[in-house]
Amino acid sequence: MHNPPLPVQPDVCVIIAAYNAQATIARAIQSALNQPEAAEVIVVDDASTDDTVHIARAVFDSRGRLKVLVQPRNCGPSAARNRAIRESTSPWIAILDADDFFLPGRIKGLLTFSDNADLIADDMWQVAENAVEGPRKSLLGTPLMEPRTIRFAEFVLSNVTRRGRNRGELGFIKPLMRRQLLADHNIIYQEHMRLGEDFELYARALALGARLILIPAQGYISVVRPNSLSGQHSETDLMHLRDCDNILESSVPLSKTDKKVLRQHYKSVDCRLQWRLLIIAFKNKDISGAMSTFLRPWPVPLYLFEQLLLQVYLRSIPNKK
Q1: Mean pLDDT across the chain
Q2: Would you list the domain boundaries of the chain?
Q3: 3-state class (DSSP) for residue 41
Q4: Where are the alpha helices (DSSP H) in 152-255?
Q5: Which of 4, 91, 157, 254 has its Cα between 20 and 30 A from that of 40?
């Protein structure tokens, strides 16, 4: 059991990467400014084509904590976050997506455990875009009741897709991150990744000895949007997410067990990638390309057969109007 230390002074930088987020950016910024422990709030606009920048700069900040930066071109959330980290000085870093927001007291609750961890995460509340004040769903499926330590293998396995299991992917968490940990190991967001960049950073940190504590929900509200950027990934994005596992395995010290679970994650992502490639091959009448997807290591061929059978079944169901 972790013994909470005494309250600490404001020492957190909240980083918000934003792209075409004019409808939600003010809410996100205000929720960060409402955290007394936030010493800095840095917004990095990723070359938006709407009014995101103007709205962000118009948010009232009586204490001079808000800084709005603009990328010269769209480079993705990883590059935006890396720039904000370089511009900030606070010993703790918090990531907030531009369409999400904090409830009052969230950062204070996380900092309660700052003596015991390098990464301090809480369960997230997920809400529908059209009902942000409505029902909340726990990211973990079953709400966490007490703090617990998360190690590399458990973290990676939580991100492996399994039939009949609530997703509960810890790659979606938004922890406080100790700046010294990132600096000591030169840990940055991988700028070529636009999908799973959080997963890669957390996994790398854990492999390098970071201490991750997961605690009950403190007030991160994740707004689920059907057209969110995270849901609009390409085959290249999936390939980068899959291949980051190979890079991790070759660049950080891992036990046999850790390597095994990392390979499971690799195969899980490869299943999704090969299914997308199979669909593209069918549309292009590319028989060779379609066949090549079945030549991937097990369990990819089984996954593809199951997906094909599912599509046949769905198409056999009469269309009721």
Answers
A1: 92
A2: 12-226, 235-316
A3: strand
A4: 152-158, 179-185, 197-207, 235-251
A5: 4
